[in-house]
Structures are given as structure tokens and as C-alpha cells.
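Data card: per-record layout.
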Amino acid sequence: MLRTITLGSHILVQGLFVRSLPDGRICVQVGKKMYSGLPVIAKAS
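The structure for this 45-residue chain is written out next.
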């Protein structure tokens, strides 16, 4: 499943969900690279 994470105030990464970490971050994979950051949560309008 595709997930989006934030790495900083203006940097977002979208990739395949790999795992959740104990501190609330998640890992996503983009190609051969792995990134971890806070998940972006959609707001209902």
C-alpha cells in the first residue's frame, strides 16, 4: 500500500509501506531506498 511520510517541514516522500516503528514513525520503500518519518494523515472535510 502506498503511504506518504514527512521528513521535514516541506519534504514529503511517498512509497510502499514497509513497517511501523515504536516511536510512531513508519518506513516506506522507494526503489532500493528506505525512508522513515511521520505519516501524513488526511483530514476529513
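Known properties of this structure: Strands lie at 2-6, 12-20, 26-30, 33-39. The longest strand covers residues 12-20.

See the next section for split statistics.
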